[in-house]
């Protein structure tokens, strides 16, 4: 029964909300382990969906599910140690919402019905809101308010987009279930005008959630104000889920012969996101906001890569995997830095190389990884996207793309250098602990390993996911 | 029966205009309850050929319960905990807002004319109402300062989108499980917004979103 993938975390979440905190922490880790197993069963195609009108294990869905499940496991281990160090008033709510969040995201990855996908994505907003405002500071309240309102309004537009796609079915006199897989087969007879209109609204709607500029305004606030494990989840898992909504609709348009149109829309949003990130990362004063803008940049890269097709699409899927691994590792390290220095401001940190050596290594390696240095996977994925763009002859876009990458690297490098090596006289508040170091290293190591050795089944799944939009190694 | 559905839609339009010109927050919540019930009733009067099944009657009741009672009730509770009763100094004044609302109706009528799609039973008014409600909701969201009015704007936008769905989608696509999921999301969303609202009020002593300006780049 495929639906167990999101039902188990749901029940675990309910249990954790009402049981004592110590038990809740154990439930969190156990549920994460169970989820990995269930994902494995889904991956091996052992489990079949019970409600096959609404759920289905698609290659792109299982890919995102695998990434989500994998990073959640390490984040849950980190959270247990992190929560011991920080005073949290409603820790059982925090644990419960982490699990609900996992449930909602898993539901997104499996959803096949247009409206069920919408319900699941909106649910991710609702259950992650308490994670952001758990500290109840004024800033956290502001971030939560922006997050809930901007995302809800944005996602409401995606619902409108889904209705337009339904209308394109009616006008095209097609009578099939309202699911992506069914629509895919009859895409050619859908009404093109309404399909295009639907796509624009879906991109604006889910794009808000994915962090595409100019709808990204909630993202830096939410990522910087939430506790680090929640930031890592938001950045590493949630953005992918929203991307999945955009990707599935893009696939639908491609099948309907409107691939060029939807690609152009995605390229514009992608490049705009990168440019916005480049501008705002330059003089950033807060290191968690810096990482948040880097997420906006990377979502832009993924949207761009998907849009150029061929090799670029393969690169974009690799980028999705490696961005999740490296960015969640970076956010987890930033949690250690926050505990150590007690501030999010870059100017109050410094000399991390001496004071927090293990965290420094993870953070610096993560920074190198996210900037596209080997041995981490983003090196490969960005290279493939650039080659793909050259092959398809999009020279202007790729110039902007490379220019933004350089700007972001230059801007962020200055800040990271300052944090790592600048003079700092005060002592460290909370020392590093093994359980808060291990997850960062494990995630980085996975990225490095996947860079040199990609398992056959993973490779095959990526190829299966992208052949629908003409992607592939020879494209 | 066609006249009855048109009457309901006219009432929805009226509630939209009322909400744009209202400055009392309690009044706004009442208007939303009224609008919620009306919007829930619309599908009942639209589709006469197929008849009304047991499922749709049940769903109708759930929808009235959520849109007409639970959500406004929750807003009312949130409002009671907040001291502020009226919207002070909105970004756009009430007369200007009302005028914008009227302009939305004209524009929606033009758009509906241009789209020229076959609506169930030829209800041109349905699409006009839907677009106006949606646009006014978005407008309210941007033109008002109090967080509570913004939530009402969001609700109005949802109502508009629901009407678009009712206007455009055929009956055959309607699956109550799915629609119930959408409603549930809306309900939980408003509850979470209410909780955040309450916390904003106790932290800042006001629910003015102009106070929310600490996080900047």
Largest interface between protein chains, with number of residues from each side: A-B, 45 and 39 residues
Largest sheet composition of chain A: none
Count of β-strands of chain B: 0
Calculate Rg of chain A over CA atoms: 21 Å
Biggest sheet overview of chain B? none
Silhouette of chain A: globular
Helix-strand string of chain A: HHHHHHHHHHHHHHHHHHH
Helical run tally of chain A: 19
End-to-end separation of chain A in angstroms reads 36 Å
Task: Note the quaternary state here.
Answer: heterodimer
Instruction: Give the averaged pLDDT of chain A, no decimals.
Output: 92
Strand content of chain A: under 5%
User: What is the number of independent domains of chain B?
Assistant: 1
Query: Mean of residue pLDDT of chain B?
Result: 84
Q: Supply the helix-strand structural class of chain B.
A: mainly alpha
Helix-strand blueprint:
The complex is a heterodimer of chains A (475) and B (217).
Chain A: H1 4-18, H2 21-43, H3 59-85, H4 91-110, H5 114-132, H6 138-171, H7 180-185, H8 192-210, H9 218-225, H10 228-255, H11 259-282, H12 287-308, H13 311-341, H14 352-355, H15 357-370, H16 377-391, H17 395-421, H18 434-452, H19 456-467
Helix pairs in contact in A: 1-2, 1-4, 2-3, 2-4, 3-4, 3-10, 3-13, 3-18, 3-19, 4-5, 4-10, 5-6, 5-10, 6-8, 6-9, 8-10, 8-11, 9-10, 9-12, 10-11, 10-12, 10-13, 11-12, 11-17, 12-13, 12-16, 12-17, 13-15, 13-16, 13-18, 15-18, 16-18
Chain B: H1 2-21, H2 25-46, H3 54-81, H4 94-115, H5 124-143, H6 147-168, H7 176-204
